[in-house]
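Sample intake sheet
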Amino acid sequence: MKRFGQFSHMLASAALALSTVLSVGGLSSTPVQAADFLMTAPDTYVDNSGICGDQRVLKTIVSRFSYQVTHVPNLPMVEISSFSDIYQKRFEPAQRSSEITRHYCGATAMLSDGEQRRVWYLIEEGQGFASIGDNVEFCVSGFDRWNVYDSGCRVLR
């Protein structure tokens, strides 16, 4: 009976992940080359390809942030209204087919209560559900109540 319970839990988790992908839509990006990024300051790159500002990526962050503030206790009930100052901080291209291309991005989010918060996010190409689309991880300054990304969103900076 215990095995069936574990299988049932895995099946439910897979169904939830699939419904999330279908509701948000798969993310995909066009391939970019290292030459597409211009250095503007130490460790900061302008994202000429637009992947950090891709509307599908930003919509994913807005949707997941909404879920987060609804389901994590003691967070203010706010929404992300808009993004500004979007940039790519670091780009890690895959060197071999077994590696993952990663884009580390930052932005400023305007919240529905009028506050502005820093947002850091990571886009992993080809790592969406069943390897379709991209995976997006994000952290909004002051909203990582359980320190998933370490103090001050350090992991995604």
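Comment: Residues 5 and 11 are 10 Å apart (CA to CA). The first helix runs from residue 2 to 24.
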